[in-house]
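Team,

Forwarding the record for the chain on the shared tracking sheet. I've put the sequence and predicted structure together so nobody has to dig through attachments.
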Amino acid sequence: PAIVPQGDDLPRMLQQELYRIQQALFDLDRPTSLTIIEETGLAADPAPTFVRIFDLGLGAVWEQPSGQFDSSTGVYVFGIEGLFNVYTSLVVPAAATPQVKSYVAALRVTFQFVDPGKPDIITNLTQSGLDDNELTVQGQILYPFTQGDSFFVEAAIYRVTEADVVCNASLQVHRISSIK
């Protein structure tokens, strides 16, 4: 048999349900999102040496709500649970004096979880090509995160043609839905 609310239970239950509806509509209107576009200098090494990117203190092009991304450390902390799409890319320009030698660009995204029983997820993305062409490495992950989970992005270039290169990096985070 169904439970029939008695006394003060009905207004309280109705208020809770209206709050859930209000929150769902708010999430549709203002989804959690972040966009960062940054030029970052990377040293080209004979072996991969990963360095943190998005930590130059430049801030985000768009962040809703603000305060989830720390531009001094390059760490994004999920402020709410949900199913998130995280996309990152790195564009390495063609060498100024190409020697038609191969090189590799790499991104490493490390996701850390507040649940101590859940191991970190490390996603490695690589792309190789010749130094006379622009090279793009990109990837995305769709994953359910809880409040307090975090991630950061690192990049590396290994080739022998040039010592340093200025790359264009981008990061986008979008909350797709709730997971509850």
